[in-house]
Design a protein that fits this description.
The chain is an alpha/beta fold. The chain has a domain at 126-195. Helices cover 29% and strands 21% of the residues. The chain is built from eleven helices and twelve strands. It has helices spanning 66-73, 105-114, 123-126, 133-144, 150-163, 180-191, 210-227, 238-244, 262-267, 272-278, 354-359; strands at 22-33, 40-51, 55-59, 81-91, 97-99, 116-119, 198-202, 230-235, 247-252, 255-261, 329-330, 339-340. It has an eight-stranded mixed beta sheet with strand order 6-7-8-3-9-10-12-11, with helices on both faces. The longest helix is centred in the middle third of the chain and has 18 residues, at 210-227. The protein starts with 21 loop residues before the first strand and ends with a helix. The structure holds iron/sulfur cluster. Iron/sulfur cluster is lined by residues 271-272, 308, 310-311, 314, 316-318, 321, 326, 342-344. Residues 24-278 form the ABC transporter domain. Belongs to the ABC transporter superfamily. GO terms for molecular function: ATP binding.
Length: 360
């Protein structure tokens, strides 16, 4: 499925710049839901690069495709999700690169956890309620390190709990005997068991209060400094990302609509949807302001309109927006590291008229 299938492509943009030391490269990843002649295209040719040691924030409303992207990239997408195209290149600890989508099942099992690990949204539904924490950690370690003795796996499990700030005597606890924050820390400990290169965190603190949310994320960032892994942090809370991410990618209707350095997204969002998201959360610093939100609702992806999918909600929509799909590319202002999918910023299309258009 191409981005041009439902709309007219109006220009050809330069390929995305590649960081000098990429650890994860997602190229043109597409996912459909449903089988037969009329599937819904929920992810359309999404490309992202994660540099070694970087924290990349993935932001967007519920249903925009953030979790689908994470599950597709790790081949954990359940039916009826179907990967219809793309590549996911992961650089292992030994420097060798492999396309996760092309690995055999055995190779993939080995790469998961060892090279790439994921922390799911709900710890309570991810941990087995009838096994103690120790067994869940030890079984995982033994499965991936066949040569290791059980006593060594137990020691490693205790070390992992201490790593995330939980006393080792909690190994004997069942998940229901732990607080929500502790359960989430156990999930993070499990994900870090084999010291992966990449940690994907899918809304890891959504169910927690803001104090616990902050504590856990600060701890993950400290561990990242210490252990050197890279993070993809998925959340709808763009204010949170601004605090912890190096770069932010904003998703809407299954596509990346803006990617830039986190500070630049926060201070000067270019895509109207990014600006709307920022206006939906209280500011982190400075005077309080009224939250504006975004009018309307995301499009039904089974009836995707031609042109820009944000057009029905966009306060700046032009005529061209309703017929031509804007492609992700450099802005007319040529800002380094920023790519936007919006006609307002397409080189040559609205040059010179941009301030007036944005003032409308
Ligand atoms: Fe709004 Fe048009 Fe930009 Fe879409 S392309 S976000 S409708 S201005």
């Amino acid at each position: 499925m191409s981005q041009t299938d439902t709309s007219t492509q109006h220009d050809t943009r330069a390929p995305a710049p590649t960081p000098s030391d990429p650890v994860l490269e997602i190229r043109d990843l597409s996912v459909d839901y449903g089988f037969g002649g009329d599937p819904t295209h929920v992810l359309r040719e999404v490309s992202l690069t994660l540099a070694r040691g970087e924290v990349l924030g993935l932001a967007g409303e519920s249903g925009c495709g953030k979790s689908t992207l994470a599950y597709a990239a790790t081949r954990l997408l359940p039916p009826p999700g179907l990967i219809t195209g793309g590549e996911v290149w992961l650089t292992g600890r030994d420097g060798r690169r492999a396309d996760l989508l092309a690995l055999s099942d055995a190779e993939l099992r080995a790469a998961r956890w060892r090279d790439i690990a994921i922390v799911f949204q709900g710890a309570m539904s991810s941990l087995n309620p009838v096994y103690r924490v120790e067994r869940q950690l030890v079984d995982g370690i033994l499965a991936h390190r066949p040569g290791i003795r059980r006593s060594e796996a137990r020691e490693r499990a205790a070390e992992l709990l201490r790593l995330v700030g939980i006393s080792a005597d909690r190994l004997r606890s069942y998940p229901h005997q732990l607080s929500g924050g502790m359960r989430q820390r156990v999930m993070i400990a499990m994900a870090l068991a084999l010291e992966p290169q990449v940690l994907i965190m899918d809304e890891p603190t959504t169910a927690l209060d803001v104090v616990m949310q902050r504590q856990i994320l600060e701890q993950v960032m400290e561990l990242r400094e210490r252990l050197g892994f890279s993070v993809v942090l998925i959340t709808h809370d763009v204010s949170l990302l601004v605090e912890v991410a190096d770069r932010i990618a904003v998703m809407y209707a299954g596509e990346i609509v803006e990617t830039a350095v986190a500070r630049d997204v926060y201070t000067r969002p270019r895509h109207p949807y990014s600006a709307g998201l920022l206006g939906s959360f209280p500011p982190l610093h400075g005077p309080r302001r009224e939250l504006t939100g975004i009018p309307g609702a995301p499009p039904d992806l089974s009836k995707r309109p031609p042109g820009c999918p944000f057009a029905p909600r966009c306060p700046h929509a032009l005529d061209v927006c309703r017929t031509e799909l804007p492609l992700l590319g450099p802005t007319a202002q040529g800002e380094p590291g920023r790519r936007v999918a919006c006609h307002l910023h397409t080189p040559g299309l609205t040059d010179g008229a941009l301030p007036e258009l944005l003032a409308r």
